[in-house]
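Reviewer comment 2.1 asked that we show a complete input and output for one of the modelled complexes. We chose the zinc ion case, as it is the one discussed in the main text.
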Amino acid sequence: MKTFHNPHHAGHAGQQEMFRGRMVPCHEVPARLDFVLAELQRRPLGTLTPPAVDAAALDTAIARVHDARYLAFLATAWDDWVAMDPANAQRDALPSVWPLANRHGFRNDVLPHNFAARLGLFSFDSGSPLTAGTWAAARGGAACALAAAQAVAGGDRSAFALSRPPGHHAGPDFLGGYCFLNNAAIAAQALRDAGHAKVAVLDVDYHHGNGTQTIFYERADVLTVSLHGDPATEYPFFLGHADERGAGAGTGFNLNLPLPRGTGVQAWRAALDTALRAVSDFGADALVVPLGLDTFEGDPISGFTLQTGDYAAVGAALAGAGLPTVFTFEGGYAVDEVGTNAVNLLEGFQRAA
Ligand code: Q9C
Ligand code: ZN
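Response of the prediction step:
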């Protein structure tokens, strides 16, 4: 399994996120990736390189998934933030005002000139700091996803996009949940564009993959499946319920398996089997796994109780799908254990594949 790691990731290093009325240190820190990289150096699964993708091909791949208006916002967001006030260069950009959707009458068709308003327009939480290096890091991550998809489309059994910031909460035109560009969706679309007729996304992060669900919600060529903490109590709260089955042509091509906080490995593995059956019934010819390790018992912001020793069997179960597979690195905030847990899963996959 080739791993493509993002050389620009450390440029995205938020200082603080808003949590229950105060600012707390960010959970999504550069050390997360460093620990996975170190573990892959200790227990190699294949080559470990930065992605080498054509810049124009990368722009195309990103634009297949994200709206032009959102990408234009992201590309200049840091400069626009600093232009508001030179002192902002020392502070992360966080939103503080949002246009509520649905019946509230706020417009989202008129692009505000005010940067704070635009940041709110394109985001859904105040926990995802945008910093000087965010755009380069997010783009570098998309390059990892594209390189991994290209490797798999070229015949590799599997590939790993080892990047941060994560991606599965980012939608066509919004950031949130520490995510800016949806790496898993970029990989899935790249696989489609390379000729894979049916691509399944099986999201095993603790949190519902709302961005990926939204991107593919009306499509029948990409099945999205997510097992996650029940949004009734868990982030991202406003999506991820079992009755969301897709819309229009995509009806029947989204499956959510919400599980209560406190779920242990036995019930979680049963849900994974249900997810894998759906992938098989769909007739997928390629698989993308948004790989969050925040299902771990020791995760500081999550509520499942999987153990380090459980992850190899999870990897083996995923290999049982028998599909060319791209993994994208998502959540997992128990920094000391995230490398061991990630490589346990990937090694379990590789041994069984
Ligand atoms: N202070 C991913 O795992 N807020 N994103 C949690 C805890 C957001 C998680 C609040 C969690 C986002 C990729
Ligand atoms: Zn997560």
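The chain is about 35% helix and 15% strand. We note this here for comparison with the apo prediction described in Section 3.2.
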